[in-house]
Specification:
Strand content: 5-15%
Radius of gyration: 18 Å
Distance between the termini: 32 Å
Largest sheet: 3 strands, antiparallel
Number of strands: 3
Helix content: under 10%
Oligomer: single chain
Number of helices: 0
Shape: flat
Strand order of the largest sheet: 1-2-3
């Protein structure tokens, strides 16, 4: 599927939230920001110091939340996908 947006060559589209949404754990719009290595924002986290209702038995994509003592420990960080197609990735042991 191809995008229909027009982007100048050698540039990438800029994406922005239309507004800052309130943190559901604290109720305010103050988020902790995680800086990207090259500048900018790579992710966010709650500033709530409350103990999470769930601390274990997470699905594999969410294992990073396992054992967190407070909601502020739950980090939501952008992780770029590999640029190598899955059919070309090395398979361990082969």
């Amino acid at each position: 599927m191809r995008s229909t947006s027009r982007v100048a060559p050698n540039s990438s589209p800029r994406r922005h939230l239309r507004r800052v949404y309130p943190d559901p754990m604290s109720g305010n719009a103050e988020w902790g920001l995680i800086e990207a290595p090259g500048g900018g924002i790579a992710g966010v986290h709650s500033r709530s110091e409350a103990k999470p209702l769930k601390i274990g038995n997470f699905a594999p994509p969410d294992l990073k939340f396992e054992g967190a003592e407070r909601y502020s420990d739950w980090k939501f960080v952008f992780e770029p996908r590999s640029t190598v197609p899955t059919t070309q990735r090395a398979v361990p042991g082969k």
